[in-house]
Design goal:
Structural class: alpha+beta
Largest sheet: 6 strands, antiparallel
CATH topology of the largest domain: MetI-like fold
Number of helices: 17
Strand content: 5-15%
Order of helices and strands: HHEEHEHEEEEEHHHEEEHEEHHHHHHHHH
Radius of gyration: 31 Å
Distance between the termini: 42 Å
């Protein structure tokens, strides 16, 4: 080995290049992961042209197919033969295409494989229409008439000869149905929910008075009067809902689907209608951003394989914020005690070892602990003490937002303790002694001098806690998360923040759609899209905390805390 080489090795230059290479590889891997999620997730919302073709395998009658071409692949002839498909012995490979047929009430399935060799007469008619529905997935066909209360409109058949006239009338009636659907949703989710909540609280109050033997004729009469008032409000809302439902169910469209099958579809079931084959680039971008906004702002439908994920976004953010509010003071107080007050000895070292070991405990163990301790023990006792009138139906003795946040706070508190204690250790002892010499008490020194200087380290611990907690799924399955929550944990119904309520979570949504969905092909793009969204949410939460940490660090840069 030459002298220059030995000098180069002793100088540590190889390790610098090694670390730089490791960082570069990490950045490339992260960028590649995000790019993969974005490519497979975001392209799902792009409107694809709809094809109409003739399909005739050997020995079978010809049939018409309509749908979107999803992907193509090459398969062995033996594999097709094993699945019962007649193949040519002279051919070793076949090309097959995955089609999204939609029209589930006709075809019985959303997706299917077709052999490319047997597809002919491919065309893309401008009049082919995609109807995205509340249920039963997409419908592909050509609108041929509009119906009002079951009767075909006199001019709709004539308008069918002029696609633009029929299309304009269909869009007008769809806009009307959309407005009515929004009004119905508002009535059911807000006004009706508020009245039902007040009736339930009145029922529980009456039962509590009976249990406590405090019911008097005056209180009984007052409760009955309040109940009568609420029931009259409920009747008015119900009558209004019935009128709106009768109006929204008025219109429907008659569609011609595959093999000239005619299907009548109510406009109240249609979320979006567009004709992709005649859309230009601006029109496709309009549909794309409309579907993307629906994904971010709407509720899920069709077993979570369609619609949006807003309840999951909301539940994830609220849970992380509540967890942060809980874990930060507990972690900081524990770190202050261990560093500033506890006598440094064997017991303190054992506590630190225990804290470090807690950080490596599998998260599902925390979920089991949260289920047994928080829900069954603490929640059950709270119900016995404060919600006895609601028993045997549990209030806090069941999985909910509060217990999920507490469980994740317990899971992440070791991270906050270690990070905060490291920050406290880096503060020079002379700072503490100078404060004490000026007459400040130990508590005042810690509160006004030490903690502000250690705040960047505290924020670092919080960032690490958020990064771990936001993506956890296993413990949440036991302590609060559900596939579909009936309402948001924060809404306009008293008491506005429902800590006892179950909620949706992006991580669990990915698990449910990817592994529990009855329609795997339809769920696959949403898995990528939701995973990308979860990464973005975690990044935004972390960047917000990091910005606050950097702001605090600037104030104490001279001390390098």
């Amino acid at each position: 080995m030459s002298k220059k080489l030995r000098k180069w090795l002793r100088a540590g230059s190889p390790w610098v290049w090694f670390n730089a290479g490791a960082v570069a590889i990490s950045i490339i891997m992260v960028a590649g992961l995000i790019g993969l999620l974005a490519f497979h997730g975001l392209r799902h919302f792009w409107p694809t042209d709809v094809m109409q073709a003739r399909y005739q395998p050997p020995g079978l009658p010809a049939t018409e197919v309509i749908g979107e071409l999803i992907e193509s692949e090459t398969v062995l002839a033996e594999r097709l033969q094993d699945s019962g498909v007649d193949v040519d012995p002279a051919k070793n490979f076949y090309q097959r295409d995955l089609w999204k047929f939609g029209n589930r009430e006709i075809t019985g399935t959303d997706f299917g494989w077709l052999l490319t060799d047997y597809i002919s007469e491919k065309k893309f008619p401008d009049a082919l229409t995609v109807l995205e529905r509340q249920q039963w997935g997409n419908f592909y066909g050509i609108p041929i008439a509009l119906l009002e209360r079951g009767e075909t409109l006199a001019n709709s058949r004539a308008q069918a000869e002029n696609d633009s006239l029929l299309w304009a009338e269909l869009q007008f009636r769809l806009d009307r149905a959309y407005e009515l659907r929004e009004e119905i949703s508002s009535l059911q989710g807000q006004e009706l929910g508020r009245v039902n909540s007040e009736l339930e609280r009145l029922r529980l109050l009456e039962r509590a008075l009976v249990i406590a033997d405090e019911m008097s004729p005056t209180l009984k009469q007052e409760i009955n009067e309040n109940r009568a008032t609420l029931e009259s409000r409920l009747l008015v809302i119900q009558l209004r809902l019935n009128r709106l439902k009768a109006e929204i169910s008025r219109d429907s469209v008659l569609m011609r689907a595959v093999n000239n099958r005619e299907v009548q579809i109510a406009l109240e079931d249609i979320v979006r209608a567009y004709q992709p084959n005649q859309l230009g680039l601006p029109g496709k971008f309009a549909v794309y951003f409309s579907r993307l906004w629906e994904f971010l702002s709407a509720e899920p439908r069709e077993a979570n394989t369609e619609g949006g994920v807003f309840p999951a976004i909301f539940g994830t953010v609220v849970m992380v914020l509540l967890m942060s509010i809980i874990v930060t003071p507990f972690g900081v107080i524990a770190a202050i005690y261990l560093r500033e007050y506890a006598k440094q000895g064997l017991v303190t070292r054992l506590i630190r070892i225990a804290v470090n070991n807690l950080a490596g405990v599998p998260s599902i163990v925390y979920g089991v602990f949260g289920l047994g301790f928080f829900i069954y023990f603490i929640g059950g006792e709270i119900d016995q003490l404060f919600y006895a009138e609601a028993l045997p139906a549990p209030t806090f003795g069941t999985p909910g937002l509060l217990w999920a946040s507490l469980t994740l706070a317990l899971l992440t508190v070791p991270v906050v303790i270690v990070a905060t204690e490291e920050g406290l250790t880096r503060i020079p002892r002379s700072i503490r002694e100078g404060s004490l010499a000026l007459g400040a008490t130990k508590f005042e020194t810690i509160w006004r001098v030490v903690l502000p200087m250690a705040s960047p380290a505290m924020m670092t611990g919080l960032i690490l806690a958020i990064a771990r907690a936001a993506g956890e799924v296993a413990p949440l399955m036991l302590v609060g998360v559900v596939k579909l929550a009936p309402s948001l944990p924060v809404n306009g119904i008293y008491p506005y923040v429902h800590l006892d309520q179950q909620f949706m979570h992006l991580g669990f949504h990915i698990y449910d759609v990817g592994f529990q969905s009855p329609n795997v092909e339809a769920a696959r793009p949403l898995v990528f899209a939701t995973a990308l969204l979860l990464v973005i949410v975690i990044a935004v939460l972390n960047l917000t905390a990091a910005a606050l940490r950097n702001r605090l660090r600037e104030n104490y840069q001279a001390l390098d805390v």
